[in-house]
């Protein structure tokens, strides 16, 4: 399944994407924000791909802007035995691998596409994320999307419902949609 909107396209991860994804994931700037910071080997990346390729509880995407890969996004069902089709809560995740787009409004586009998909097509009730307390950029980013803090400590648990998401992203969605019309006559 391909997801599109707000100037970006999310395509399912394929074998041809694995080297680039591993390179991005092993980048120190990205790895330091992950719960697991160990470098990933080629063998580990292949094993991961084999596992996720047949798991109905998760989907992984390459984020593309103007047909160029710029990052990675994923969603995972929360709860034992849940699939993406049966889950009421989903945990999204993403990172922008291309540094040119990390501090840019475009960085919000893949999240908007993914969240729209989760709420509007999968019909989930809430999104949930766990972020390192030291990752203030991610916490601020998620706050702008409407996430609320549930628990905090070394790890901060945050949740988002559809109503808060709609309210907090209306202007952002309009801006990204207007930009798309200007660049795609």
Automatic annotation (TrEMBL):
Source taxon at top rank: Bacteria
Pfam families on file: Acetyltransf_3 (PF13302)
Enzyme type, top EC level: transferase
Record Gene3D superfamilies: 3.40.630.30
Domain named N-acetyltransferase: residues: 8-163
Keywords per UniProt: Acyltransferase, Transferase
InterPro entries named in the record: Acyl_CoA_acyltransferase, GNAT_dom
EC identifiers of the protein: 2.3.1.-
GO molecular function, one term: acyltransferase activity
SUPFAM superfamilies: Acyl-CoA N-acyltransferases (Nat)
Name by which UniProt lists this protein: GNAT family N-acetyltransferase
Taxonomic placement: Bacteria, Pseudomonadati, Pseudomonadota, Gammaproteobacteria, Alteromonadales
